[in-house]
Design brief:
The protein has 11 helices and 15 strands. It is α/β, with parallel strands linked by helices. It has 2 domains: about 300 residues, Zn peptidases (Aminopeptidase, 3-Layer(aba) Sandwich), CATH 3.40.630.10; about 90 residues, Urease, subunit C, domain 1. Helix 3 crosses helix 9. Bound molecules: zinc ion.
Length: about 400
């Protein structure tokens, strides 16, 4: 019986993957968007009869925060995205999921989820951060370090929502920083997962084991699309984080971190993986597959390592100043998308993070072979930020 369920989850995940282009929201053309745009896309789906919308509070700057619910089942599942305002990948995926429910209402995945589960979804918990594309909220506070102090209205709303519905499971959706790799493999992490601990000792109890089983199913679903690009997120206990606290309070919580994929600056492929992975995992929960799962695949995932840069210049000559000799070096550069409050446009900046031997590192967006070329020492300043289109002028 169990093998049948496993193969059903696998087959349906593949079907969702193949169907994706037919239901994804085409209007989303960039991963930089504001709450007003998100609300317009949801409104255009015309699915308010299927997916209930409730205002559950206001952000620090007074933007409404909404909870969307779907399904008539008895198992409550809380899903939130973009508590960090510049981490929008999963928000796009959640909107695609709304679109899937709306366009494929008769599909067996939709039917099982609708019958067995009650989804409670907060896409974009931090609309102020999304407005300015910053990690923190408008009070400059990282909401995911506010689970105990509850200084932020967004943190309070999240806590109240958990207490109101007492969900059996929660999905905490993020984007991780650029440049993470799967262990020492030189392969980019596309998705990193964790069942966060609830104490320093990383003790397992029933709640956390249930979360690990869900993470195990999610990782196995991902494995058929991106083998060897899945990692385990750092599972050090963080007493101020929501996932760790929800785990402590009895809601089996998994953290999903969207990583990177080569030549995917808007992270649309990662968005697709999130959409398919979350839908198929919810289906697996609905049919009881996660209960019978073990945790072995999740337990054996390699940890995330930070062995990538957005851009790497290789084999360049550098004489850092007139008192030192010329040496051959690599240069690791990361890109930063910053919102310019004056011009109200996003600027792509670059930052030199490291100079030296980067043979064990991979580049995510750009690789420059600078053999025989010399770097301009005036331009090579660690941590200095400059427009990304000036990278070619780093040479003499
Ligand atoms: Zn985050």
């Amino acid at each position: 019986m169990r093998e049948n369920f496993k193969s059903i989850v696998r087959i349906l995940a593949k079907e969702l993957y193949d169907l994706y282009d037919s239901f994804k929201i085409d209007a989303i053309s960039s991963n930089h968007f504001k709450q007003s745009e998100m609300l317009e896309w949801i409104g255009n789906l015309g699915c308010s009869n299927l997916i209930e919308c409730e205002k559950i509070g206001n952000s620090a700057e007074g933007r409404a925060i909404y909870l969307y619910s779907f399904g008539n089942g008895t198992t409550n599942i809380l899903i939130w995205s973009q508590m960090h305002g510049d981490e929008s990948t999963a928000t796009m995926a959640l909107l695609d999921i709304f679109s899937f429910f709306s366009k494929n209402h008769g599909h067996t995945v939709t039917k099982n989820i609708e019958k067995k589960l009650r989804l409670l979804i907060i896409p974009m918990l931090n609309p102020d951060g999304a407005e300015y594309f910053t990690r923190h909220n408008a009070q400059l506070i990282d909401i995911n370090r506010d689970a105990l102090a509850l200084i932020t209205p967004e943190g309070k709303i999240l806590k109240e929502t958990r207490e109101r519905f007492r969900p059996a499971y929660a999905f905490n959706l993020h984007d991780q920083a650029t440049g993470y790799t799967v262990g020492l493999t030189k392969r980019l992490t596309a998705i990193a997962l964790a069942a966060p601990p609830f104490d320093e000792e990383k003790t397992d109890n029933i709640t956390r084991i249930k979360a690990k089983k869900v993470a195990n199913v999610f990782a196995q679903i991902m494995h058929q699309f991106i083998p060897d690009h899945i990692a385990k997120w750092d599972d050090t206990f963080e007493p101020r984080a929501f996932g760790d606290n929800f785990q402590k309070q009895g809601t089996s919580t998994i953290l999903i971190e969207s990583g990177r994929w080569q030549n995917d600056p808007n992270k649309f492929f990662i968005r697709k993986l999130n959409c398919v992975g979350i839908l198929a995992t919810l289906f697996a929960i609905a049919i009881g597959e996660t209960t019978s799962s073990d945790t072995q695949f999740y337990d054996c995932l390699p940890y995330n390592k930070n062995l990538g840069y957005d851009c790497i210049i290789r084999n360049a000559n550098l004489r850092a100043n007139s008192r030192v000799p010329v040496v051959k070096v690599d240069v690791g550069i990361n890109f930063e998308r910053k919102f310019n409050k004056d011009t109200r446009v996003f600027e792509l900046n670059a930052k030199i993070v490291e100079v030296g031997n980067l043979e064990n590192f991979i580049s995510v967006e750009r690789e420059i072979d600078a053999t025989g070329k010399s770097l301009d020492p005036q331009r090579i300043v660690i941590d200095q930020i400059f427009p990304a289109n000036e990278i070619d002028s780093l040479f003499k």
